[in-house]
Specification:
Radius of gyration: 14 Å
Active site: 18, 94
Number of strands: 5
CATH topology: Rossmann fold
Bound molecules: 1,3,4-trihydroxy-5-OXO-cyclohexanecarboxylic acid
Structural class: alpha/beta
Order of helices and strands: EHHEHEHHEEH
Keywords: Amino-acid biosynthesis, Aromatic amino acid biosynthesis, Lyase
Oligomer: single chain
Site (Transition state stabilizer): 13
Catalytic activity: 3-dehydroquinate = 3-dehydroshikimate + H2O
CATH architecture: 3-Layer(aba) Sandwich
CATH class: Alpha Beta
Shape: globular
InterPro entries: DHquinase_II, DHquinase_II_CS, DHquinase_II_sf
CATH superfamily: Dehydroquinase, class II
């Protein structure tokens, strides 16, 4: 799980928009979801784009990824390039329905590279992404 800026304070960040679940709780739910595949969750959250890039470069050994880029969806070109070289499938997730919000949230520079995208379902979206990732990974191999 790779989470971008401002997602480390989930639970106390605009709860009306992002819900009350913490990132740790979401990661726990994802861990339970993927346990049946024998997978473990590596959960990384960084507020800086460079640190997210470094985390991607250090994660080529993972089976796949769930990525919430936060506001880097809008212009995170370096993040996009790092994901382009990530050798495994990944799913983009947004807690909120970005298309029901301000127009500056309507474009994602990373979305064209994702296997799929889930938005608007809160923390549950990460669980759905985990299920989808398992399908994609198993269909690839
Ligand atoms: C977000 C949506 C982004 O527009 C926003 O900048 C975030 C969170 C979401 O999960 O809904 O930080 O990615």
């Amino acid at each position: 799980m790779l989470n971008g800026p401002n997602l480390g304070i989930l639970g106390r960040r605009e709860p009306d928009v992002y819900g009350t679940q913490t990132l740790e709780e979401i990661a726990g739910a994802v861990a339970r979801e993927v346990a049946e595949h024998g997978w473990e969750v590596r959960s990384v959250q960084r507020d800086c784009e460079g640190e997210l890039i470094r985390a991607i470069q250090d994660s080529y050994d993972t089976v796949g990824a769930i990525v919430n880029p936060g506001a880097l969806m809008i212009a995170g070109w370096s993040l996009r390039d790092a994901l382009a070289n990530y050798p495994r499938p990944w799913i983009e997730v947004h807690l909120s329905n970005v298309w029901a919000r301000e127009s500056f949230r309507h474009e994602s520079v990373i979305a064209p590279l994702a296997s799929g995208l889930i938005a608007g379902l809160g923390g549950f979206g990460y669980q759905l992404a985990a299920r989808a990732l398992a399908e994609v990974v198993h269909n690839r191999s």
